[in-house]
Amino acid sequence: MNKILIWILPLLLCCQCTQEICHACFHGTCFSKRKLFEGKQFSGQIAVDRMDNVLHFHYKDYRSNDYTAILDLYSDSPKLEILPVDYSFARAINTKTGEVYFSGAKGIYVYNSVTKSTVPYMLFNTTISLMQFKDKLYYTEFRREGIYFVENNRADAMEALADYIVDDFVIDKFNNIYFISDYILFRYKKGEHKAKIFSNIPYSLTTDTKDNVYLIETTTRTLFKMDYVRDRITEVGIFGSGSVFNAVFDKYNNLIYCDAVEERIYMLLPTFSNCTIVKRKRKKENINVSKMMF
C-alpha cells in the first residue's frame, strides 16, 4: 500500500471506493466535478435561470476583453452565447418569469430568455455590486452602505440596514436576509427592527432551489447549511481541492461553483459512492493515497 508524507488540512476527505473520483464529500456521499467552462478570469456573481437551466456569468479573456455570457447546462454540446453588454458584475433571476437582471459598469439591464433580448432597465448613474431576486429585486451599491430594493419601478433603501457595508447577501425561504459585513455574518429577520450577529466567521453565501441558505468557508473549503429547526449552521461536508467561490444551485439542485485557482466553473454530481470526513490535527502524517481521490 503506497504511502506518502504530506501536510494535511484539519479536515481530510477519504473516499471508501477506489473506482470513483471523489472531489467533494457531502452527507457521506462522494461527488465528482464536471467542468463547464475554463481558462478565463471570472468576476462578479453567477446565476442560474432554473426555468431553462442556463448559467449566466461574466468572464475576461487573456486580452482583458469583457464578456457577459450564458451557457446551457444540459445541452449535449453546450454552446456559449455572448450578450451585448460587455462588462457585468451583479446578476439575479426572477425564477417565475425567467427575466435575468444584471449590472453593467453603470445601471441595470434585463435579459429576456424568451425573446433573447437585452434592454436597459434603471439606475444608470449607479454601480451595482450585488443583486438577489425574491418577489422583487434587491441590490447593493458599490462602496455604499445598505441594501436597496425595487418596487413599482422605484428604488428604495432598507432603513434597518442603512449602516452596513454589505459584501454578500442572500434571502431565504422565510424572507430573512443573511449578509456579510466586515467579515461577520448577520441575519436580518423579517419583521424585526435590526440585524443581529449570527456568526463571526465570514462565508460565501448561496441558496438552493427551496431557498435554504448554504454557506462556504473558503479557507477550509467546508460547505455548511442553515438548520432551521435548531436555528444554527451545520456542516454538510468539504470540497477536496481548489479555491471555491460564487456557488449556485441549478434546477436539479446540483451545486455549481467557480474555482479561483484553476479558473474554471464546475458542477458537482453525486457518484453514489460512500465517503467519510476524518478530523485530524495539522501535522505530518502518513496518508493512504489509495483513499485520497481528489
From TrEMBL:
Keywords: Signal
Organism: Diatraea saccharalis (sugarcane borer)
Signal peptide: 1-20
Protein name: Ommochrome-binding protein-like
Taxonomy, superkingdom: Eukaryota
